[in-house]
Design goal:
Elements lengths: L2 H8 L9 H10 L10 H8 L9 H11 L13 H15 L4 H15 L4 H17 L1 H12 L4 H11 L2 H4 L2 H18 L4 H4 L2 H20 L1 H12 L4 H11 L2 H4 L3 H11 L1
Helix pairs in contact: 1-3, 3-5, 4-5, 5-6, 5-7, 6-7, 7-8, 7-9, 9-11, 9-13, 11-13, 11-14, 13-14, 13-15, 14-17, 15-17
Amino acid sequence: MECYSVIEDIIPLLEFPDRFNEIEDYLTTNSNLPGPRGNLTLAFKFAESFEKKDISDELVNLLVDWVHISPEDAPTNNPREFLSFCGILCLGAYYCFAPENTQVLIMEQFKISMNDIRWRVKEGAAMGLQKIAERDFGPIKNYFSQLYGNSNFAEKRAFIATLAHPPILTNKEIAKFSLKISDDILKEILTVDKASRKSDEFKVLSKGLQYAISVFVADLPDKGFELLKKYAKIEDPEIKKIIKSNLGKARLAKKYVSEVEEVTALLS
């Protein structure tokens, strides 16, 4: 079934709590799961339905319920995993229109989704946070700043994935903030012991840093290459891997040839 046809069928059901189960059926049936790629077009089109005021408490509670569907009840690639993805994405879409008490509730759900063991739900958290950032970066900056001190590897990875979003990085203040968080995380990696570096959560964070920093550097090259130079000089294998990977990204390698060569020389 075509995405737009599905949305046309779903929209009228949003007004009737006793028919929410039909919404779930439409979404799971058209989720493209199991499969390598969920139906992002459908998810984002559905999320647009929440970019407005006057969303009912019943609908908000439905989205929260979806976020809370456990990995045991909907493991990776199960069609019901798509509901968890849609739930957090839609909460992000609604955030800027929601009353303050609901905004607090929404941010609590993001912490849950950032720590979900399913990669698709983690991506949903980052995409939902990006939806907020596209409209108002203030809440994202405040949330990340408040959470950072006690954040774990999964949450730090979510910060980086959220910020590596070119549409918001046209704002140079956001690019500066992104480089600052990158600096903080790289500095912290230097203190992580060998055993912790073998954890899946750390590996996912490192993988995220291996591309995200290049996105930030491309939008603020002067400060960005200063950051890369700073860490290229440090004798730490994980740091060197992260810096080397970013230098190899086309967005830097093709446009900033001399700068990349200079940093590369510091790695050896």
